[in-house]
């Protein structure tokens, strides 16, 4: 447990300090190689946290100069959406996780059947990849969210407009993030042009009733292998053109709203399988209702502030969760804002 690894360690360790319980929980925690599908900025920050914990992180990413490449234990250049590549990569890892959900789920399911330790589970990734399937899943678990319906032609879209009213939010089921995959029809005449922007009905679309929210809130939730849960404080996210622009931590909302948002986030994460960090995005309405928007099964840009503002960053928390360590303290040391 105390074995050091020079590839991942950012500073020397005083072996006398290792006798302290808190040091045992942080340094030299694992000889296991953690495989990460994706080497973007989130992967880079995972590697930064891993370097302080002596965890070896191996990255699979198609870009030779991906952000995580300079900091990881090893970078395998290849597609995380190619079955053979992912299977070969997994053979070299003790635990497999993701920093992006758009991976080959069928391969992850096959790897799990072969005994590969994947977190979060492939079943969770499959649900999250399809935004419509996500809505169906959470609705079946009694979580309140905006009304939604699948559409496959103009007539079904028109019926949705008649049912929900306008403006009407039209969304793509897959590959929708950072403002991509969303289009607003303000009236029936705009349905066709909005659908065209999203690639047509054949791409897989659904309609969501417009949510008249007053604030967008997010919780980062850590879930351990033993199903323990640790929630970070509720934050407010402010978006420009559907892109997260400002994060205010903690959110300036009453405690009643914070407690309600936390309860919804816990319920959503508990309905999914596997360990890791999850981002739960929520709408706060004028009447004080909390509606679930969507969930990401990984660290999130709304949690970048945790590196400096919380006792345990979301990246360290994700590492702790997937490796099997006790979850860290997710409380804040100081209020924060990030742009």
From TrEMBL:
Cited InterPro entries:
ATP-grasp, ATP-grasp_carboxylate-amine, ATP_grasp_subdomain_1, PreATP-grasp_dom_sf, PurK, PurT/PurK_preATP-grasp
One GO cellular-component annotation of the UniProt record comes to: chloroplast
Instruction: Tell me which Pfam families the record gives.
Output: ATP-grasp, RS_preATP-grasp-like
* SUPFAM superfamilies recorded: Glutathione synthetase ATP-binding domain-like, PreATP-grasp domain
Q: Which reaction does it catalyse?
A: 5-amino-1-(5-phospho-D-ribosyl)imidazole-4-carboxylate + H(+) = 5-amino-1-(5-phospho-beta-D-ribosyl)imidazole + CO2
Q: Does the keyword Hydrolase apply?
A: no
Q: Which Gene3D superfamilies match?
A: 3.40.50.20, ATP-grasp fold, A domain (3.30.1490.20), ATP-grasp fold, B domain (3.30.470.20)
Please state what the protein is called. phosphoribosylaminoimidazole carboxylase
């Amino acid at each position: 447990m105390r074995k050091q690894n020079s590839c991942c360690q950012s500073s020397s360790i005083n072996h006398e300090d290792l006798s302290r319980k808190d040091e045992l929980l942080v340094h030299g925690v694992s000889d296991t190689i953690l495989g990460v599908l994706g080497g973007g900025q989130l992967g880079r920050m995972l590697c930064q946290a891993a370097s302080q914990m002596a965890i070896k992180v191996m990255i699979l990413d198609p870009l030779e100069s991906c952000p995580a490449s300079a900091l990881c234990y090893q970078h395998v250049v290849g597609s995380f959406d190619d079955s053979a590549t992912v299977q070969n990569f997994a053979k070299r890892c003790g635990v497999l996780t993701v920093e992006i959900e758009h991976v080959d789920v069928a391969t992850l399911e096959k790897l799990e059947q072969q005994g590969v330790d994947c977190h979060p589970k492939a079943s969770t990734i499959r649900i999250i990849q399809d935004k419509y399937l996500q809505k169906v899943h959470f609705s079946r678990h009694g979580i309140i969210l905006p009304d939604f319906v699948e559409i496959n032609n103009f007539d079904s879209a028109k019926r949705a407009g008649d049912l929900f009213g306008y403006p009407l939010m039209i969304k793509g089921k897959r590959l929708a993030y950072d403002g991509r995959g969303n289009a607003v029809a303000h009236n029936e005449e705009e349905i066709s042009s909005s659908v065209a922007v999203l690639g047509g009905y054949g791409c897989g679309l659904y309609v969501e009733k417009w949510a008249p929210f007053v604030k967008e809130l997010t919780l980062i939730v850590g879930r351990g292998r033993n199903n323990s849960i640790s929630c970070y404080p509720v934050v407010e996210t402010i978006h420009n053109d559907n892109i997260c622009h400002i994060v205010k931590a903690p959110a300036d909302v009453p405690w009643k709203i914070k407690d309600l948002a936390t309860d919804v986030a816990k319920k959503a994460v508990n309905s999914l399988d596997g360990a890791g960090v999850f981002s739960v995005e929520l709408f706060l309405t004028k009447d004080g209702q909390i509606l679930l928007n969507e969930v990401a099964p990984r660290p999130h840009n709304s949690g970048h502030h945790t590196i400096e503002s919380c006792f345990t960053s979301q990246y360290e928390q994700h590492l702790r969760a997937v490796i099997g360590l006790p979850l860290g303290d997710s409380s804040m040391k100081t209020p924060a804002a990030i742009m």
